[in-house]
Amino acid sequence: MAILLTIDEPATGPAHTPSVDAFLEMGFRPLYLAGASWALVAVALWIFAPQLAGGTLGGLAWHAHEMLWGFVATIAVGFLMTAGGAWTGINPIEGRALAALCLPWMVARAAFLLPGDSAFLIGALADVAFFALAAAALGRSVLLSRNTRNYAVPFMLLALGATDAAFLIATRAGDYATLMQHFNAGLLVMALLTLLVARRVIPFFAMRAVPGLTVPTHLRSGMAQLIASALAVFGLIAGWPLVQAAALVAAGGIALVQWASWKPWRVLHKPLLWILYVGYVALGTGLLLAAAHAAGAGLPAALHVHVIAMGGFSVLIIGMITRTALGHLGRPLETDRSMVAAYALVIAAVVLRLAALHPSAASVHLLHLAATVWALAFALYLWRFFPMMIRPRPDRGGPAAQPVSITPRRS
To answer: Would you say residue 161 lies in a domain?
Structure first.
């Protein structure tokens, strides 16, 4: 890709009062806050008050659905609604249209907590509509700008919506085996989208932040990685586990090679960078574990799911929603203690949750502790960033940074 996010470090300016116009200026503002809030609430409900999730989409199905499509995919939509403006020069969605996009998301989250078929149907329609509307908004920007490099990205959002719909249909039918197949398909589609974004932005961010650092952007290996990820989804849906396993080995292995080539030892002094590196290496490792599971190695399914979803997606998310928010809010690209503490807490939550997978007398206590530190991490993020998100940029109170052309090196 030739165009990536602009993250400038502007001069400081006067404080501004909260503004609805500023809040709805770009997709990341409401959607990052919505996703982070739901990450906190959904885990707290699942661990400490599961009886409140009493709808048709209840129990483990509710937890799996809400963490993948209610949290992770929501942050992905917020990122793409913002990055799309930098890629195309056209803001995909803002103002009332952005508020309209957020409405079905909120309806779905509430409806899935309520009992009854009507509530479930309303939630399902609202949830799928959220992804369809987001794909349409991004697709419009891509088409109007003739940004051919990103023609596939709106279809990835549609694929997230399609796997969401399939999961919900299987839930309604009470077909647990099919439900889990669709969950895994959604997980792999999300992994494909995450690899696409992370492989492009991590080298860009690193070279901008560390003087003299030069790292490969892996255009060719990145394309092979995306093809392998898509093949893994196909192998899963077609019921070809060995094809799925081989494709996952390729996608995960390429991720680890890329990570090593990005010189992780050079970013240890930059929290905004090392948190992204931690998430990317965890994602690659999770894909290899998923390959082992698909090949029948006897590993529990919960292991690769949590390594990918928590160690990969969630660690990358806490880094990305910090880094990209600071840049688009016109703030210095520097972490404070609360941000670094949030990073440490998310990583601690991952370690504790993985430890809780091993049956022991301490498992329940580890699970509760993992949920607690997870909730604290996202509470810290909201405490620090909510006041910024509802105010105009301090440097000029106007729109976010203009797009920048990046010409990556071939590797």
So the answer is: yes
3-state secondary structure (DSSP) of residue 295: coil
Position 236, amino acid: L
Per the structure, the count of domains in the chain is 1
Phi-psi domain of 358 (left: phi exceeds 0; alpha: psi -120 through 50; beta: other)? beta
Specify if 61 maps to a domain: yes
- Look at residue 147 in the predicted model and tell me its pLDDT: 84
Distance of CA 17 to the CA centre of its chain: 30
Find out whether 340 and 399 touch, Cβ atoms under 8 Å.
no
**Phi, psi dihedral angles at 375 (to 5 degrees):** -60, -40
- Smallest CA-to-CA distance from 280 within 342, 218, 232 is with 218
Pairwise CA distance, residues 374 & 46, whole Å:
12
Is the model's pLDDT at 224 over the cut of 80? yes
Q: In the structure encoding, which two tokens stand for residue 24, read together? A: 């709805």
Q: What is the pLDDT of residues 64-88, one digit of tens each?
A: 999 999 999 999 999 999 988 888 8
Contact in structure between 290 and 300 (CB atoms under 8 Å): no
Percent of the chain clearing pLDDT 90 (strictly above) = 81
pLDDT tens digits, 131-160: 999 999 999 999 999 888 888 899 999 999
pLDDT value of residue 172: 85
Long-range contacts at 125-128 (CB < 8 A, ≥ 24 apart): 127/69, 127/164, 127/168, 128/161, 128/164, 128/165, 128/168
CB of 2 closer than 8 Å to CB of 407:
yes
Provide the domain limits for residue 33.
22-174
Confidence check: pLDDT of 9 > 60: no
The answer to whether position 334 is within a domain reads: no
Does 218 map to a domain?
no
Which residue, among 96, 98, 128, has the nearest Cα to 112 in the 3D structure? Answer: 128
Per-residue pLDDT, averaged over 268-284, amounts to: 97
Instruction: Please give the backbone phi and psi of residue 404, each rounded to the nearest 5 degrees, phi first.
Output: -130, 140
Kindly compute the dihedral angle of the four CA atoms of residues 77, 78, 80, 83, in this order, to the nearest 10 degrees: 180
> What spatial distance separates the first Cα and last Cα of the chain, rounded to whole Å?
13
Which of the 8 DSSP states describes residue 396? T
Task: Annotate 105-145 with DSSP letters as a single string.
Answer: HHHHHHHTTS-SHHHHHHHHHHHHHHHHHHHHHHHHHHHHH
Q: pTM of the prediction?
A: 0.91
Compute the chain's Rg from CA coordinates.
20
> Is-contact 42 66, C-beta < 8 A?
yes
